[in-house]
């Protein structure tokens, strides 16, 4: 029960990594507030968590809109008077050659993958600073360290996440707020199949030290570590969860 009585806000929770984080946090005693634009899927995850004995509440919304994120923070403060953890997980991953990328597609990528974190952090950071306690974990991508063709807009957004993490750790450290980042590698999720072929998945795995497909739980466990007292001496860090694909 590493997170007993902690209050956690998590985005992108209807499937994949976000769902795994929500379930693992609830199993470890956290009260989890979930946000996803897939309302039905998100409610199903929350219902399942409660059925298993955990505490959860689902919200439907788009992370690009501060008004959709705010109800999570408001509900957490009203019910528990605290926000201990923020997990910025929501993101999109459409492939597109750079010269075929429209300005609208570029802006959407930055808005979902990066600007949404600006909005959510601005909502919760004042509470964390006032309590002199808090943990923020941002989900980036190992593609930033690799550079990947056909993903310029995605890699740019995920690089921004790392930059935001490092600078915010400098600003928030005096208030005992920890800000860290995870860079997942090739994670087998429901959405991956829409953008990655089986051949591409096998090629990525062949570049890993550990020859197995990683799943959402692999990322969730590192997120649990960064959200608990086990990582008390860490902030401003970026942890690869990629089976040894990239080393730096």
Q: Describe it for me?
A:
This protein is an alpha/beta fold and 248 residues long. Helices cover 48% and strands 16% of the residues. The protein has helices spanning 16-27, 39-51, 66-80, 103-131, 143-146, 152-172, 192-195, 198-206, 216-227; strands at residues 7-11, 31-36, 55-60, 85-88, 134-139, 177-184, 238-241. A seven-stranded parallel β-sheet has the order 3-2-1-4-5-6-7, with helices on both faces. Helix 2 (39-51) links the parallel strand 2 (31-36) and strand 3 (55-60). The radius of gyration is 17 Å and the shape is globular.
Short account of what is shown:
This protein has 248 residues and is an alpha/beta fold. It is built from nine helices and seven strands, in the order βαβαβαβαβααβαααβ. A seven-stranded parallel β-sheet has the order 3-2-1-4-5-6-7, sandwiched between helices.
Total strand segments: 7
How large is the share of residues in beta strands? 15-25%
User: Widest sheet: strand order?
Assistant: 3-2-1-4-5-6-7
Structural class: alpha/beta
Helix run count: 9
Unreliable runs:
none
Gap between N and C termini = 32 Å
Cα gyration radius (Å): 17 Å
Mean pLDDT: 96
Which of globular, elongated, flat, extended, rod-shaped describes the shape? globular
Helix content: 40-55%
Element-level helix/strand string: EHEHEHEHEHHEHHHE
Q: Note the main sheet.
A: 7 strands, parallel
